[in-house]
Design goal:
The chain is an alpha+beta fold. It is built from 5 helices and 15 strands. Strand 7 and strand 8 form a beta hairpin. The protein is globular and about 45 Å long. Bound molecules: magnesium ion.
């Protein structure tokens, strides 16, 4: 069964997700060549705690950091360490917050300095696929409709859709039912109802769709070591029309997953 959340629960989920969004927009502005990714993680942790939250990734199945920072060939679950960001890399940041027992979860990819046209295309298409998935997340549709909307955008550009990781329900646990693949499967999945809270998170590779999990047991890198991008929002299904984006960016100048906001925010990508 997929949980239907009360107004009170949705308010708590919104608060958790708004902390996530604030952290992500702050870190996005820090990304430039020469930055150590562990420093981004430390800033995220202190922002989350100042907001009265708990970094939900920290200690999750033993994960050693507050954020996942996945650079270029790393798809997701990168462990922030002494790696220094270089020009022409994609830096993907995933943040999770537990606020009073309710979870926020969102992610975005940001270009480091000038990135080449293929990386721009990858990021643009991944962000656009998230937008398409959000638009399909309406009461009466099924999970299948979200998967199909995301897949269509990615396949039109001949990019690799990661299959080993999928979107998910989120609420009083970090990962709940249902699973939301970024590709069509034989299952139609449950029907969407008002009050369902789900995290959509397409992960897209410039090359092959296969990923390797590295020796640390976490880092998922593309099998061909070509770059990857990742955008995620947590949303709540409405009785009618498109969902509310709980992790909507508080920065009115750019909102990822809306009109390619993450792509257009950098003048080097205009
Ligand atoms: Mg997630």
């Amino acid at each position: 069964m997929v949980a239907l959340r009360s107004q009170r629960e949705i308010d708590l989920l919104r608060t958790a997700n708004q902390t996530v969004a604030k952290v992500l927009t702050t870190l996005a502005d820090r990304i430039k060549p020469g930055v150590k990714i562990i420093d981004l993680d430390r800033e995220a942790e202190s922002m989350i705690r100042e907001a009265g939250g708990i970094p939900s990734f920290l200690g999750y199945h033993g994960f050693p950091a507050s954020t996942c920072i996945s650079v270029d060939e790393v798809v997701i679950h990168g462990i922030p360490d002494d790696r220094v960001l270089q020009e022409n890399e994609i830096c993907s940041i995933d943040v999770g917050v537990n606020y009073k027992g309710y979870y926020g979860d969102a992610a975005l990819s940001i270009p480091c300095g000038e990135v080449d046209s293929e990386r721009k295309r990858l990021m643009r298409v991944t962000e656009r696929s998230l937008s398409a998935g959000i638009d399909a997340a309406r009461a009466g549709n099924r999970i299948h409709d979200i998967s199909a909307a995301i897949e269509k955008v990615i396949l039109a550009d001949n990019l690799g859709i990661v299959r080993d990781f999928v979107g998910h329900g989120v609420g009083s646990e970090m990962h709940e039912e249902p699973q939301i693949p970024n590709y069509v499967t034989s299952s139609k999945g449950p029907r969407l109802k008002a009050g369902m809270v789900i995290a959509l998170e397409p992960m897209v590779n410039l090359g092959v769709e296969e990923v390797d999990v590295l020796e640390d047991g976490w880092t998922a890198a593309t099998a061909d070591r070509k770059p990857s991008a990742h955008f995620e929002h947590s949303i709540v299904i409405q009785p009618e029309g498109p969902p509310e984006i709980l992790s909507k960016s508080p920065n009115a100048n750019w909102r990822w997953g809306e009109k390619e906001g993450a792509i257009l925010r950098g003048e080097h990508l205009s």
